[in-house]
Amino acid sequence: MHKSSLRRSTLVSTALLLAIACAPAQGADVAVAPGSEPELTIYNGDLGLVRERRIVRLTDGENRLAFGGVSRNLQAETADLALDANDKVKPADLRIFDQTFAFNLMSQESLLEQSVGKEISIVTTNPGNGRDITERAKVLSVQNGLVLEIAGKIHTGISPGRIVFDALPPNLRATPTLLVTASGPAGVDIPLELSYLTAGLGWHADYVANYDTDSNRLDLTGWATVTNTTGISFNNAKLKLAAGDINRVQQPQPPRPQMRMAMAASAKADAMPEAQSLGGLNLYPVARPVTLGTGETKQLALLRATSIAAKRDAVVRGQTWFYTTQLGEPRQEGRAEIEVVVKNEGRARPARGKAAEPAPAADTAGLGVALPPGVVRVYGQDSDGAAQLLGEDRIDHTAEGSEIRLHLGRDIDLPVVREQLSFVHASDQMLFSVWRVTVRNTKSKAANVRVVETIPGAWDVTKENLPHTKNAAGQAEWALAIPAKGTAILEYSVRTTP
Known about the structure:
By secondary structure, the chain is mostly beta strands. The chain has a domain at 1-199. The chain contains 1 helix and 33 strands. The strands form 4 sheets. The chain has a 15-stranded mixed β-sheet that branches. Strand 27 (403-427) and strand 28 (430-440) form a beta hairpin. It is elongated.
């Protein structure tokens, strides 16, 4: 073989074929077959809890168990093996000595890195006679290019061919593997439950609301978008979705390569299961087993509720700081906010001791379940019957019996002018201000508008042309009834003690 042919490429070519000359060095490992029907709990954010059952068969003495098929983002410090309930093996019979998460995977680059200072074989084919030519080479470096020593000379590249390694380094594996050293009864099937936390699993909720503005009723569909970038697939998994804010200690995570993203959606909406409350979390069990492939984003239908009573509000709101500052621009223009208010209420539950109602069907009247946070997109129908987006808003955790208030935007037909007519800083503990709020209604039908003011500190409305109420939030609120093509003017004076 001519040495000059080894100098023509700058690094290992992508056309390079990879060969391993020897069997793996981990032959003593006891391979543990992947479990079936895993259980997943997926939390908001990038976190999941995996539980799966596996069967192991030990030999005499210590065994190194190799659990393949685990997430490449497995958090090693959270991995736990527990003896599953059985009559043959007692907990005291099984001893676990140590466990190691091996995520250094085989690749052309990692094999070369592990071969620095060692010899490999370079195999090329003579184009004239088709025979293979083999030369021994010592790997000196793989930093910024491959450096080899061949027959006492230094080469900085090789021509396309095959690299043959004498052995597979013991710390390289084809897939991420959890290694556990254990001892126990030999020759019997031992059922174990493996559980661990992993990054690469996440979910969030999204909602679609179809709002009938004439009847003030809406239909609501809820979806859970679940993402899997763990590098493994979960087949027929029993799935629970956890909604809540759990405290976590931040740990450094190994880098994750990007995965393909496929979209899958179930065809039929199911009723959202009643949330299970656990330690400040709401758990939503998914009724049917779910197959979540690696690199997939899957949408699961959680809820379809029909004909929910809704109320459309037009609201004018001021800022808290308005009442502690003389405005540089005393006249401000805007438009009334549009809000749709829904009560999270469902069917009345039977009294204690009476027969329970049957489980809700796919279509349910009312809600009556705790809703996880997510974005609600509200659609209405135009005069042609076509759906149009009216607005969207994000809701927080919404308990049963609470109110859902969706801010959809501003009403172009309800322009608002706010004027600060006077501001007096009487003392450090006393402020006076006078306000005028003018709302026009350009619609062809009457409109009701609420003016809601958050006034800081202790406050008192000293003068007003319309009566106010103090609502549950401690805000001053006025109700304006505006005729079609008409105008309403609110004037009031406020004394505040910051």
